């Protein structure tokens, strides 16, 4: 009874407790990469099954009676014992089952006592395991020379293919190796290895396992030699798996064909970018609807000197303008703008923060969608100020931009221009969440899911993603706002000064956005279709900026190269249930007001009906010649001409009129007419409550400061005063260069008609 209990519990659990390598495979089973086990051995995780060819080879070479003996072969043991007692040579009589036991016991010394233990445990192994499982254990843990352990590992290391694809010659060569693993070393004992392999092949032929032709072809095959490098199709994802799933064989969601294509795209673009000393590049492709990772290129195939080992996809980088679509969508969703509402693009200063457009120019006024597609900075900052910084910060939290984790005031209004950092993983995830929200709404009878902005997954057969309960209201943005944002992003205009933009076209539509961080350190391009989300980051991992390192020039070409290798996915369906058809003022993009003459019907997000009617159209009364405005104080009512006029505020008008020849400036009042408090002029610089800084030149002398003013009648003369001191006059172009001393002043401008404008200012010297 004691002996039986000892036999029953004689096997350890688990039988093999050794570290294994980490292996990453594509969604169709191809190897993407592997990382060595912690003990320095290339030992892949246990195999699921043994290929038939190798099984035949190993049984005929090691243990022909494997399927019939109880764990040991008494005949083989007797022959081995007689040989060892009567000769100087040594012969083994172990079965495959015994060899599995010996491997599990870390190949302890070959003594007769150890042999008894092996036989004892082998019978227990046979009683508890199926024959196929025992064979599988042997194939998984047998040594194949050097630090190569296991059939699957050996197949990749010596032939560069999975074990399931081994030929008869390759299978036979590997079958003889566990018996004498030292034969594998190149240039050493190759003839012995060939003799053993060929003898095994002959035995297989004689037992009619295969025909003569197969035998002749097999003996002519090359022997395994120097270990080959393992595949590295997704090195950074493989390393990610090693950290998160160490020692596991992980079948990922990666599309093997797409991964190879994206690798080639990255390689080609990296070569071009490296000519400008731009060395790092990352690409992430997600399935919008499943949130599965389809392609993962964490960095360009550069050198260690240029940090090729850094997985840029996970590293936070300055976002540049890549957050602007989130603000645009938020304001559409809240009903605070319409897609083409005119927004101001004029000199702006907010508490000392003075944003600039990339081209250093001002447009006066632009449609909000154009401001987004052209990535204009000033309108974005003004829109963020109007929407409220904290409110937008809360939106970013809802879409799980995890790296933006400091208080909103830490970032300030620069948040929308790259003042915060986020990762390519989070940004691409957020764009995918927008597309998924729209898709689900259109496919689910106008409903939403609570958790659209979930983490992407890269493990195949993963747990079901928790998109949350179905609800009638969106958790972040409604489908109508997202659709209008995508429409604006699909109609991207060519930024001024960017030649060859027309070549960045594709046969399938894409909602996309670029971004460039301050100092030309980070270039972004992210785009979505109904099926795919593509994220691209280009730059230097060490943060070095380079001229030309912009989203348009560096990242956008990669984005479109990737798009062109993806299957067609069409365009997003229109979410009519979240839209309403309204009359829009063509010139201003606002809801049509009483005085709008050009009106069109457009579909808008429902909350867009909350926006104000067009504030820029007004009715005016002109004299018969229509060259002066008049009123009842100076002109007969019967002779007045009534017209509707598109009028922008003075500063917006100042810049807008220069770019729009069709814009007609409002005629001045007739000289003898009383004006009804009309605002004829406005300071462009300095603005209200803005400190004026006097910069120093290289000689440490204080430079002049230029006061600037917009006037409805440019031909008029304007007289300038600091406090009560006259400092000059301007005509036509109202810009005055002065060199005042530091201090607080009252700046006054008076035109020839006696109209006056005042502003309190403070002048400081820039230290």
From TrEMBL:
Catalytic activity: [GlcNAc-(1->4)-Mur2Ac(oyl-L-Ala-gamma-D-Glu-L-Lys-D-Ala-D-Ala)](n)-di-trans,octa-cis-undecaprenyl diphosphate + beta-D-GlcNAc-(1->4)-Mur2Ac(oyl-L-Ala-gamma-D-Glu-L-Lys-D-Ala-D-Ala)-di-trans,octa-cis-undecaprenyl diphosphate = [GlcNAc-(1->4)-Mur2Ac(oyl-L-Ala-gamma-D-Glu-L-Lys-D-Ala-D-Ala)](n+1)-di-trans,octa-cis-undecaprenyl diphosphate + di-trans,octa-cis-undecaprenyl diphosphate + H(+)
Enzyme Commission code: 2.4.99.28
Gene3D superfamilies the record matches: Biosynthetic peptidoglycan transglycosylase-like, DD-peptidase/beta-lactamase superfamily
Keywords: Carboxypeptidase, Glycosyltransferase, Hydrolase, Multifunctional enzyme, Protease, Signal, Transferase
Domain (Penicillin-binding protein transpeptidase): residue spans on this chain: 282-552
Residue ranges occupied by any Penicillin-binding C-terminal domain in the UniProt entry: 671-758
Matching InterPro entries: Beta-lactam/transpept-like, Glyco_trans_51, Glycosyltr_51/Transpeptidase, Lysozyme-like_dom_sf, PBP_1c, PBP_C, PBP_transglycosylase, PCN-bd_Tpept
Domain of life: Bacteria
Annotated pathway: Cell wall biogenesis; peptidoglycan biosynthesis
Signal peptide: 1-17
Chain ranges of the Glycosyl transferase family domain: 41-202
Primary enzyme class: transferase
Similarity remark: In the N-terminal section; belongs to the glycosyltransferase 51 family. In the C-terminal section; belongs to the transpeptidase family.
Annotated protein name in UniProt: peptidoglycan glycosyltransferase
Organism annotation: Aequorivita aurantiaca
Lineage summary: Bacteria, Pseudomonadati, Bacteroidota, Flavobacteriia, Flavobacteriales
